[in-house]
């Protein structure tokens, strides 16, 4: 088994190699002057079971292209099997047509990855579980909830905790965390009655005096999270912390979080944290290296990975 990595998340690749006690596969990933990507695999992969770790995070298109080209290089070098390991699958939010004459970009990206040579996909907290069906190859969608729940147990007094979904779409994910923590569940229900009117945040559940834990798959601009936090505090929550798998954190999101009333934002390293994230006083990163590493190991050994979903 060999693990290679593009440039998106070298530190996670390093942690996974430590967990697996292997060396990262040698590859040269570089740019021509016009920014075309060039990749050279620097070791023999003939007949090998190859894994490529690459999150299609910012810059999403460059990282996607690196993944596609690396798969092609491995395929042409006679790798026996190629698993694309995508701790963060970008484009996942474009999983349906939002209006007439619009694309389903998540499906386009799934097609590209398959066509470039992936035999399997290993990913984490897909924005919508049914995106697995966009791939016609085996796709394992790991859940970060066990990692997040362990962190909550280590850092919070559970008797006062209330798990909160920041929108109606995230209730299944929030329920999974609440079940693990044996805690109650609340929901922030965003409504805009008419176009142009401002959004009204209704909180379903009594959060007064509770330490609220918001859980979501993605934080991008931070708008969803900060608005939900405001709504919970306005309803009397004692504190609001957020657990979010993928820290996309575009634009001014980090400063929005640092100047918000959030006690803490906990994200995973599915996307490589920027230096702004690392130095933010109320953002903490927990690693999914063991989870992803274990899934890679079990895939290589043809063992079940389903216990990792529990
Ligand atoms: C939406 O369905 C997702 O689960 C996230 O809530 C959303 O992507 C967060 O985006 P932002 O941080 O820009 O509000």
3D structure, described in words:
By secondary structure, this protein is α/β, with parallel strands linked by helices. The protein has two domains: 2-142 and 290-309, 3-Layer(aba) Sandwich (Rossmann fold), CATH 3.40.50.2020; 145-287, Rossmann fold. 31% of the residues lie in helices and 25% in strands. It has nine helices and 14 strands. Helix 2 links the parallel strand 4 (49-53) and strand 5. Helix 1 packs across helix 9, helix 2 packs parallel to helix 3 and helix 4 (145-155) crosses helix 5. The longest helix has 17 residues, at 60-76. The chain binds ribose-5-phosphate (R5P). Residues 93, 169-170, 216-225 line the site of ribose-5-phosphate.
Defining key terms:
5-stranded parallel sheet, Rossmann fold, binds ribose-5-phosphate, 7-stranded mixed sheet, globular, alpha/beta, 2 domains
Q: TL;DR of this structure?
A:
By secondary structure, the protein is α/β, with parallel strands linked by helices.
How does CATH name the architecture of the largest domain?
3-Layer(aba) Sandwich
Outline: globular
Low-confidence stretches: none
How many domain modules? 2
Instruction: State the share of residues found in helices, binned by percent.
Output: 25-40%
Overall radius of gyration? 20 Å
Summed up, the helix count is 9
What structural category arises from helix and sheet content? alpha/beta
The small molecules bound here are: ribose-5-phosphate
Q: Helix and strand layout, with pairings?
A:
Elements (H helix, E strand, L loop, with lengths): L1 E4 L4 H11 L6 E5 L5 E5 L7 E5 L6 H17 L4 E6 L18 H12 L3 E5 L14 E4 L2 H11 L5 E5 L5 H11 L2 E8 L8 E5 L6 E9 L3 H12 L4 E9 L5 H6 L5 E5 L6 H5 L3 E4 L2 H12 L10
Parallel strand pairs: 1-4, 4-5, 5-6, 6-7, 8-9, 8-11, 11-12, 12-13, 13-14
Antiparallel strand pairs: 2-3, 9-10
The structure holds ribose-5-phosphate (R5P).
């Amino acid at each position: 088994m060999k693990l290679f990595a593009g440039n998106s998340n070298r530190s996670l690749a390093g942690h996974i190699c430590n967990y697996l006690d292997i060396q990262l596969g040698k590859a040269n990933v570089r740019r021509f002057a016009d920014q075309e990507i060039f990749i050279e695999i620097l070791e023999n992969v003939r007949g090998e079971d190859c894994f490529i770790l690459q999150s299609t995070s910012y810059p999403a298109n460059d990282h996607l292209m690196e993944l596609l080209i690396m798969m092609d290089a491995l395929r042409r070098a006679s790798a026996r099997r190629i698993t694309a390991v995508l701790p963060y699958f970008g484009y996942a939010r474009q999983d349906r047509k939002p209006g007439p004459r619009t694309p389903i970009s998540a499906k386009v990206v799934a097609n590209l990855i398959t066509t470039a040579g992936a035999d399997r996909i290993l990913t984490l907290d897909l924005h919508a579980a049914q995106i697995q069906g966009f791939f016609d190859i085996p796709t394992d969608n790991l859940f970060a909830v066990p990692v997040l729940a362990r962190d909550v147990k280590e850092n919070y007094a559970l008797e006062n905790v209330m798990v909160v979904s920041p929108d109606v779409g995230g209730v299944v994910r929030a329920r999974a965390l609440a079940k693990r923590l044996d805690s109650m569940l609340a929901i922030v229900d965003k409504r805009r009655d008419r176009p142009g009117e401002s959004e009204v945040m209704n909180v379903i559940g009594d959060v007064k005096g509770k330490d609220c834990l918001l859980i979501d798959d993605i934080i991008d601009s931070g708008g969803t999270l900060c608005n939900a936090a405001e709504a919970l505090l306005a309803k009397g929550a004692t504190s609001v912390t957020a657990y979010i798998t993928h820290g996309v954190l575009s634009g001014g999101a980090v400063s929005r979080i640092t100047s918000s009333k959030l006690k803490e934002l906990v994200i995973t390293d599915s996307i490589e944290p920027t230096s702004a994230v690392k130095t933010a006083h109320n953002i903490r990163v927990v690693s999914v290296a063991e989870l992803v590493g274990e899934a890679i190991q079990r895939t290589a050994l043809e063992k079940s990975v389903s216990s990792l979903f529990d």
